[in-house]
Amino acid sequence: MRHTTLTAILGLALSAQMAAGQVRLEPEFSIWDFELGAPVTQAPDIKVGEIACGTNGGPQGRPLVSFADYETCEPEPSGLREVSFTYDDEQDYIALALNAEYKFLYGGTSVFAHPVIVSVLVDPEGIVQGRRIFTDDRVDTYDRRNAVTLIRNFKARFGNWSLECRDIDMKEGEQPVGKQFIHELCTGEAPDGTKRIELEATLLRKKGQRGLNPETQEVNQGYFESKTRFEEVQKPYEPGAPR
Questions:
Q1: Per-residue pLDDT reduced to its tens digit, 11-30
Q2: Which residues contact 182 (CB under 8 A, 6 or more apart)?
Q3: In DSSP terms, which residues pair with 221 in a beta bridge?
Q4: In a domain, 10, yes or no
Q5: In the Cβ-directed half-sphere of 100, how many Cα atoms lie within 13 Å?
Q6: Which H or E run contains 224?
Q7: Domain count of the chain?
Q8: Residue 133 CA, distance from chain mean position
Q9: Is the pTM above the cut of 0.85?
Q10: Does some domain include residue 1?
Q11: Strand, helix or coil at 40?
């Protein structure tokens, strides 16, 4: 009873705050708030969660105190350094406190409601030259299964970037997930010709991933790859590296 009463009180307080426009439904600072061509030191450390060296779509690497510490990260072959960060998690704690009925507030580090890993690419002079977004594999099976669909949102957002898309053939050992096999690669250029993007989406079983356990004949949960990758860079840098 006490829990129900507390949730109701919090719910009423939230409703009042929403009516007054005081509840933030978007992160204070997201991957889209970075201005390419601007110093990375302009990014507000206080408005994000954790900052670390990026690992090209993998878990965060060496922790950083500030975006200004970008030189601590190892440069890629292009000379750019990848700095990853998470969004401020304040609204997530609000959602947890208010229980599932206010789940719409839950954001985490997400893009178009997909859990993601985000990072920026910084040149030796400390200028932001690009951004990366990868769907996050460290989620439940439902969210991971839908990760491949994020490419649709990117196609819509960058629809005027002269996108050219092609299907990549199935490699040795790869298999469809059920009847679906998706490996799509898109490239595009900004209308003003200053930036390039690359989008990649996959839904497949990699070599060794079987849909059924050969011993028990039960379905192997999560034995598939479903991902979307986004990279945007300023010229003369090229997206898509390193592999």
A1: 555 455 545 444 445 678 99
A2: 148, 201, 202, 203, 204
A3: none
A4: no
A5: 0
A6: none
A7: 1
A8: 4
A9: no
A10: no
A11: helix
